[in-house]
Design brief:
With 245 residues, the protein is α/β, with parallel strands linked by helices. 23% of the residues lie in helices and 20% in strands.
Length: 245
């Protein structure tokens, strides 16, 4: 059984469920997607970047998860990774989480192990490889016409169209009628060198990219949430696991 590492998020604010016990966690939907593809999920608690090699040594692939904005604990990617000061509409950032996830991406690439990025995970991959982000789509992206944070619509309801840009790993799963969900206010601005654009929204915001040579795959939407009401969303996880040697 293939083992897939998932770096956790951490609660850094007191809350009604845990008080001041600041826990590391991962949403169950990611576990379901990996398990449903007959792979073994291994959760990496956020730690020292020096642990990145040991963590990646222990698995066959890496999944970088992303929190939707309506979930407690979601953070933006810090603009320090693409040489910008924080925009006035930037949300909370977490320096330890950013540094840990960047170190895991770098180590997974060194070890030539596949990487899947989802939402924030897509953004982390892009900035690690030298790309940039819109810190806030609403105020920085010209021509925005799609609601990219669908709240209060339920997270498992697909709401906007996916526009495929080329033949890619997504082509056997999606077509021009496909809908996906959306919970983000940051997005890819400049795609890092070597990454190929696979899909956009109808207003041309980047929704997916990949690099087959390095086995990097990433989507901006949340397939793990779609699983709650759409069994076909499992195909994306199945396709990724099939790429692991």
């Amino acid at each position: 059984m293939k083992k897939i590492g998932i770096p956790s998020n951490n609660l850094v604010h007191a809350n009604a469920h845990f008080g001041t016990n600041y826990v590391d966690y991962i949403q169950k939907n990611y576990i379901d997607g990996i398990s449903g593809a007959n792979a073994l999920p291994i959760v990496f608690p956020i730690g020292d970047i020096k642990l990145a090699k040991a963590y990646i040594d222990s698995v066959d692939a890496l999944l970088l998860a992303g929190d939707a904005l309506l979930l407690a604990g979601g953070q933006d990617v810090s603009p320090v990774y693409f040489g910008e000061d924080p925009h006035i509409n930037l949300h909370e950032t977490d320096a330890r989480r950013d540094a840990f996830e960047v170190a895991l991406v770098i180590e997974a690439l060194k070890q030539e192990k596949p990487i899947l990025g989802i939402c924030r995970g897509l953004q982390i991959i892009n900035v690690t490889l030298g790309g940039t982000l819109y810190q806030d789509l609403g105020s920085q992206y010209d021509g925005l016409s799609v609601k990219h944070n669908q709240y209060p619509t339920k997270w498992y309801v697909p709401t906007h169209h996916l526009v495929l840009q080329r033949q890619s790993w997504l082509s056997d799963i999606f077509d021009e009628k496909s809908l996906v969900n959306s919970f983000h206010h940051q997005a890819v601005k400049r795609l890092a060198d070597g990454l190929k654009l696979d899909a956009t929204s109808s207003d041309n915001v980047v929704e997916a990219f990949s690099d087959d040579s390095r086995r990097i795959y990433a989507v901006q939407w949340h397939p793990e949430m779609l699983l709650m009401d759409n069994p076909d969303a499992q195909e994306l996880f199945d396709s990724f696991v099939a790429k692991i040697e």
